[in-house]
Amino acid sequence: MQKNVLNLKLKIFKSARPLFYQWIQDFVFYFKIGWGHIISKDALDHQLFISALAAIFTYKDAKQVLILVTAFTIGHSLTLALSVLDVIRFQSKWVEFLIPCTIFITALSNLIFNGARQRNVRINYVLALSFGLIHGMGFANTIRIMLAKDETLGWGLFGFNVGLEVGQILVVMMILTLAAVMTGVFRIRQKDWLFFLSSGAFALALKMAIERIPF
To answer: What are the residue boundaries of the structural domains of the chain, listed by start?
Structure first.
């Protein structure tokens, strides 16, 4: 009896092993796509948005930064899933126009509330979640067809979002490190650094938005 049970467990394990390997391969495949969608030379708009969100923070705000990145991930994950499932769909030209708009609005908010840090932090939480919805549409345009044909849709979405999350955290860490060097080594005031970074993001995003006007 015990031998039969052992043989049955062995057969189940052997039949499940190929499926497990497929899940791992799918996860790694979509993780790389998500990572590349943030960490690449063609991802300047998304990098600028993360930079504008993180500009008001320092290393001592690690917990707040984690909440911020998570809020952005929740926002774009929601519209990414709905778009891939074809529940919602938007024209690419409008999405590409709205993405730089989210950047210069965030950067402008930093500039306006530069002297009111706590208020700025709360506003950036809201912007991260709401504007993450728009960025999710941009991500969906990249992988909709691939995920729609994939039998492991949930696993692919998970891998893609994890790749995005890790990439976003890396960008944030780079911004915080640069901020620490500027304020600690070169003695630049935090408010001046915020103004410099936000102004640069605002100018670049405004240029992108004008170039992408869809009408």
So the answer is: 2-211
